[in-house]
Design goal:
The protein has helices spanning 11-33, 36-82, 87-98, 107-120, 125-136, 139-151, 158-176. It is an all-alpha fold. The chain folds into two domains: 11-61, no CATH class; 62-176, Receptor-associated Protein (Up-down Bundle). Helix 1 crosses helix 2 (36-82), helix 2 (36-82) packs across helix 3 (87-98) and helix 4 packs antiparallel against helix 5. The mean pLDDT is 93.
């Protein structure tokens, strides 16, 4: 199962990040000090550091993309729930809608497949969402999972709660832009 806290970058991405970091570190030190040996050492150090910086940036970018995809999922699910579908059926309907927007190998579609598989193996939906929230590392998903855990089987207003949660996430995203 994907862990969104870890960078999706591979060896090629690490090599590119090292090359860019090495070139930048070498250039800056050579321009200021004009000592080739010092510039090479500085380039090696900054190239190595840049691998970690690039990996963190890639993981953050993936989480931001997942957050936007999750927002779209809640929007599609709330529409299906307003039509009378229970939450799990609404997720299945939302997947069909999201396939029009995102590719089959996108993170949210993969997560919906995981949710479907676990649900079919009798894992409670609140537990599935909590697991997804932990792996994502996103506060919005954690909040939604905790809200859903609190209302699961206890409230017939789930569609309103999903819609309100989706609106709160939309407001937060708008403020951050």
């Amino acid at each position: 199962m994907p862990n969104y806290k870890i960078s999706p970058s591979g060896p090629f991405d690490h090599i590119v990040a090292f090359g860019i970091g090495f070139a930048a570190g070498f250039a800056v030190l050579f321009i200021f000090f004009k000592i080739a040996a010092l510039s090479v050492i500085g380039g090696l150090v900054y190239g190595t550091v840049n691998i970690f910086i690039a990996a963190q940036n890639a993981a953050a970018k993936r989480r931001q993309k997942l957050r936007a995809q999750f927002f779209d999922l809640l929007e599609a699910a709330s529409v299906a729930m307003r039509a009378g579908s229970p939450f799990f059926k609404a997720l299945q309907n939302a997947k069909e809608d999201l396939l029009l927007i995102y590719s089959q190998n996108s993170d949210i579609i993969a997560e919906l497949e995981i949710i479907k598989g676990k649900f079919n193996n009798a894992v409670p939906l609140s537990e599935i969402l909590t697991d997804f929230a932990e792996r994502s590392g996103l506060e919005d998903i954690k909040s939604f999972a905790s809200i859903y855990s609190a209302i699961e089987g206890k409230s017939n207003r789930a569609d309103e709660i999903v819609r309100e949660t989706q609106q709160i996430i939309a407001d937060k995203m708008e403020i951050e832009i």
